[in-house]
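Incident review: delayed structure delivery

Summary: a single-chain prediction request sat in the queue longer than the usual turnaround. Root cause was a stuck worker, restarted by the on-call engineer. No data loss occurred. The affected request and its eventual output are reproduced below so the record is complete for anyone auditing the incident later.

Affected input:
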Amino acid sequence: MKKAFSSIGRTDIIVWCISVLLIVISYFLSPDRGLMNSITSLLGVTAIIFVARGQVLGQVLLASFAVLYGIVSYFQSYYGETAICIFLSLPLAAFAIITWYKNPYEDSGEVSIRRLKGRDMLLLLPLTVIVTVLMYFLLSYIGTANIVWSTFSIATSFLAAGLTVLRSPYFALGYVFNDIVLIVLWITAALSDPSAVSMVFCFLGFLLNDSYSFVCWRIREKKQKTA
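Output delivered after worker restart:
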């Protein structure tokens, strides 16, 4: 825990503060202030800062975020997002916690970055397609809202989570694409429910943090290779 907090630098704090500011502004601008949405958002952007530093604590916080986000999505009738949290995000976050903990880089507290191999993608890409197709039919059956973007969310979430387990820097790019999908998804929700505005700002913050996370991981990857 101490190493996780000591790994946070000035730039991390600036990025986090910008993200928090976005969420706080959205809370006060929303006609129907969704406190649960804002708390979920704050937990999420905090988690990503630790993930950017390759700290296991980030995955623990993301698992907690998945629970809250699943609840928020359920009440918005975004059953796809709820299903992602229960059946994908939580199990894969738990798996990532284990793999990151078992693969530390020296005594820094950060995870050892793994080079992505061709066979990894030969397994991950077909799995992503299979999971996405199956979930599409499930979501159609249960009548989830905005099914097209919900399906895109499943595909990008699964791909990003898989790359996270593999300890590849490209997991952050996967989440960048997922953030864009979710921004569109929650903008659609906000048109009829003003409380959803905070979730739009949440994923704008995520977009900033995940982009920053990718840069951090690429820099750290080069350092680990040359060490």
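Verification: The chain has one domain: 2-226.
Action items: add queue-age alerting; document worker restart procedure.
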